[in-house]
Amino acid sequence: QKEVEQDPGPLSVPEGAIVSLNCTYSNSAFQYFMWYRQYSRKGPELLMYTYSSGNKEDGRFTAQVDKSSKYISLFIRDSQPSDSATYLCASKGSNYKLTFGKGTLLTVNP
Amino acid sequence: KAGVTQTPRYLIKTRGQQVTLSCSPISGHRSVSWYQQTPGQGLQFLFEYFSETQRNKGNFPGRFSGRQFSNSRSEMNVSTLELGDSALYLCASSTTGEMNEKLFFGSGTQLSVL
Fold first, then answer.
1. Are A92 and A3 in contact (CB under 8 A)?
2. Rounded distance between C-alpha atoms, residue A36 and residue B37, angstroms
3. Span B49-99, pLDDT tens digits
4. Which residues contact A21 (CB under 8 A, 6 or more apart)?
5. Does A36 touch chain B (CB under 8 A)?
6. Which residue among A46, A100, B54, B88 has the highest number of C-beta atoms inside a 10 angstrom radius?
């Protein structure tokens, strides 16, 4: 079992839809959780960074962490074609490295 | 503030050759880590350096090596290239690499092995 599992999709939604992206993790040592957005042929760009269970909002993006069920989510409201990208969840424990999910390819259709 | 810079952007090599990739972290960042990204395996951790010392290494063969210089710039080397080494190699930096720090990535070096 991989330490971070993420549904690879692909996910296709119409413009304006609410998008829900989800990951689960198995390592209880993970304490910090991140969402990255990666456009084709580019490096990952940090979108959201959370530590505690609960919600964190930044504009149209909301990251949610439930440590009791080891579940992390990213919600995108009013999705735009420019949101079309691969979204990667990542978790960090105590050993200087990020462990990534495989990424979900999102397409927002105008 | 300049971001993480990786050079070269693209590389084409043949099997058996070796390759060196370069990474300049964000100014003030002393932790540099490397990741390999492939369609099949996603992003996988290669190694992390801080103050010229490797602190953690992923599950890759010894053909993959790295180093960090006193100015925090880092290089990674892959010897005896195999077809399966074709991937996007990403460098990331943070201030000290500690658990609560955010990690910032460069655009990567796309390596193709023929």
1. no
2. 14
3. 999 999 999 999 999 999 999 999 999 999 999 999 999 999 999 998 888
4. A6, A11, A35, A73, A74, A75, A76, A87, A89, A104, A106
5. yes
6. A100
